[in-house]
Structure formats: structure tokens, C-alpha cells
Amino acid sequence: MFDFLERIRRKEIVLPGKIVLLRTLGSRDFKKLKEWFKDPEVMQYGFGTKTDGVSLQVMVREYEKEIIRHRQNLLGIEVTGVGLIGFLNYFVNTLHAKGKVGILIGEKEMWGRGYGTDAMTTLLGYLFSELGLSRVELDTAYFNSRALRCFEKCGFKRDQRLTEKDAWDGKNSPKVWMSVTRAEFLNGHKTGTSDS
Ligand SMILES: CC(C)(COP(=O)(O)OP(=O)(O)OC[C@H]1O[C@@H](n2cnc3c(N)ncnc32)[C@H](O)[C@@H]1OP(=O)(O)O)[C@@H](O)C(=O)NCCC(=O)NCCS
């Protein structure tokens, strides 16, 4: 109870989903993030590339800075009885009411159990209903079939766009872009079609 009130006082975000809880990350979460970032398989799916030691350290530091600054665009994914299993990030373009999102479940044994779909759906609900965005997009590696399926279940549709730039090691790594509008998301959720 105290923890919950303290979170509200610090203006932290707490968003309950059906099977996960999204919440602002804190410095106590660094250890987990570092573990996940050290796992080549997680990194390959999460960022579509193999990361070398240097770029990995840069990335870990960037995430740490975001967490220390209490930036609310980084949300942990928690499962009752398990703890933190991953995180989501989102960037908001207020001028165009657009957003870009990303997700990483670092606990590999938690993949394929519906947590990603629930976490992303919960975030989309927040971005469309609370922040009033009209469109949200993301990109993912072309080989990431699990992510593509998860995002389709959340209501995302594939765009024509395919980019080949890779942010971390400069190697070609085609990315598929997907997007969902507020109307599509809210309609899908009214009729339940986005989860089909
Ligand atoms: C991608 C990710 C967020 C998806 O979350 P998740 O909890 O594993 O996904 P869900 O269980 O909600 O949904 C996965 C769907 O893909 C299917 N799936 C699982 N493995 C698959 C595979 N290898 N190929 C194709 N589909 C697969 C599942 O059956 C499920 O679909 P269904 O409900 O129709 O059966 C999570 O796996 C993850 O973080 N992976 C590592 C990092 C990553 O890839 N991040 C995304 C970068 S954009």
C-alpha cells in the first residue's frame, strides 16, 4: 500500500494489464537489464543485430541515464510472483500526435506466454486513451516471427516501408515497420478482432 502511494507521489506510472503490470523502472532494476543485455539471443531479437562489447556498454549507460532521470517513457513489465520480465519504451511526437514503441522481454522462459501481447496492448491503451495519440508505429527485424505475430495480435499492420540500416553495428538487417491508428486499436478492442 505504502509502495503504491509512494509511486503516485513520485508521479510514477503504474498501468495494470490483464496478466502483467507496467511500471516506471528504477535503479534497482539495473541488474536485470544488464543481465538481459548480455544475452546474445535476447539482443539479436530485441535489436535485430549482434552487439559488440563497446556498443553494448554505450547502450546500457544510455538506459541507466534514462532510468536515473526517471524518464517515464521506459516502463518495466512485471508478472505477479515472478517479478520484472522485461520493459517497453515509447517516444511521443506531440506535434503530430504520433508515437513509436519498442518491447523487450529479457526472461527467455517467459517468451510465448502472452505477456508481450498484454504488455503492448496495455501500453497502446495508455497512449491512445490517456495521451491522445492518433498513430503508433514500431519496427522489428524481418526474422523476428514471434514479435511480428505478437504485434499483429495487438492490432499492428505491416507498412510498405522496409529499412536496411542497423543502429548498432552498421550491418544490413532489414526491418519491418508496422503501425496502428487509434481508431483501429479501439475498434479492434471493442469487437475483439485485433486479438484474432
Ligand atoms: C517479441 C516479444 C515481445 C513477444 O512477446 P511474447 O510474450 O513472447 O509474445 P506472445 O506470447 O504474446 O505472442 C507470441 C505469438 O507468436 C507465436 N510464436 C511464438 N514463437 C514463434 C515463432 N518462433 N515463430 C512464429 N510465431 C511464434 C505465439 O504462438 C504467439 O501467437 P499465438 O498467440 O497466435 O499462438 C518477446 O518474445 C520478446 O521480447 N522477445 C525478445 C526481444 C524481442 O524480440 N523484442 C521485439 C523487438 S521489436
Explain this structure.
It contains 7 helices and 8 strands, in the order αββαααβββαβαββα. The protein has 196 residues and is an alpha+beta fold. The chain has one domain (2-195): Aminopeptidase (3-Layer(aba) Sandwich), CATH 3.40.630. It has an 8-stranded mixed β-sheet. Helix 5 packs across helix 6 (145-154). Coenzyme A (COA) binds next to helix 3, strand 5, helix 5 and helix 6. Coenzyme A (COA) is lined by residues 42, 45-46, 86, 102-105, 111-117, 140, 144-147, 149-150.
Descriptive labels:
Aminopeptidase; alpha+beta; binds coenzyme A; eight-stranded mixed sheet; 196 residues; single chain; globular; 39% helix
Topology of this structure?
Layout: H1 2-9, E1 14-16, E2 21-24, H2 30-37, H3 40-47, H4 53-68, E3 74-79, E4 83-93, E5 98-105, H5 115-130, E6 135-141, H6 145-154, E7 157-163, E8 175-181, H7 182-191
Parallel strand pairs: 5-6
Antiparallel strand pairs: 1-2, 2-3, 3-4, 4-5, 6-8, 7-8
Bound molecules: coenzyme A.
Largest beta-sheet details: 8 strands, mixed
Number of helices: 7
Question: Could you tell me the mean pLDDT?
Answer: 86
Helix/strand order, N-terminal first? HEEHHHEEEHEHEEH
The total number of structural domains is: 1
Question: How is the CATH topology named?
Answer: Aminopeptidase
CATH class: Alpha Beta
What is the terminal-to-terminal distance? Answer: 37 Å
Which residue ranges are poorly predicted, with pLDDT under 50 across at least 5 consecutive positions? none
Strand order of the largest sheet: 1-2-3-4-5-6-8-7
Number of β-strand runs: 8
The Rg value, from CA coordinates, equals: 16 Å
Task: Write out the distinct hetero groups bound to the structure.
Answer: coenzyme A
Residue share in β-strands: 25-35%
Q: Give the CATH H-level superfamily.
A: Gcn5-related N-acetyltransferase (GNAT)
Q: What global shape is seen?
A: globular
CATH 2nd-level architecture? 3-Layer(aba) Sandwich
